[in-house]
Amino acid sequence: NAGVTQTPKFQVLKTGQSMTLQCAQDMNHNSMYWYRQDPGMGLRLIYYSASEGTTDKGEVPNGYNVSRLNKREFSLRLESAAPSQTSVYFCASSKFWGSLTSGDNEQFFGPGTRLTVL
Amino acid sequence: AQSVAQPEDQVNVAEGNPLTVKCTYSVSGNPYLFWYVQYPNRGLQFLLKYITGDNLVKGSYGFEAEFNKSQTSFHLKKPSALVSDSALYFCAVRANTGGFKTIFGAGTRLFVKA
Q: Which of A94, A107, B41, B84 has its CA 20 to 30 A from that of A58?
């Protein structure tokens, strides 16, 4: 039981290059998330997928796209990387999203991808 | 609008002493409140949550948190700190109405000195 896995662990891009960050979970969770973590700013939600087949914008979606490939996998794509996208990216999952249950909303995080855009 | 504040960037405590990491929140309706911990070069790890019921919730590694509705606070506590508790701690809040998004605080770095 690996939990949430992310690839790659590290990446260096040049401005304008594209790349896809991969995320997979093996906990049969319905909801998945992409965050970025920047010093002093905590975690900011980029996109989320409340359930398979749906995706929605979070707090900072500009410059990113996502795909919920299936229940297990949720990828994040940078089409044209910019230095402002230098950050640590975390994927997370939770059993449920909204008010369907009173609990089961805690999120499980992957180890992160450290991205540098030059 | 939903928000969460962690007023201290850093908390220093001696090993064996009690620790408190503060968190206040603003949300419409009844909140779901969470604490997560992040060790160096790792993802966040769930510690505990408050959904409803007893205001004092217990979590992993001997941590507990007290929900105070009148003060809109959810401070993290531990009676006796360990050096291994040194990490970055995040408070998070989620409304149980509306958009259901979870908002994270900026984090508080805890240093426990031997």
A: B41
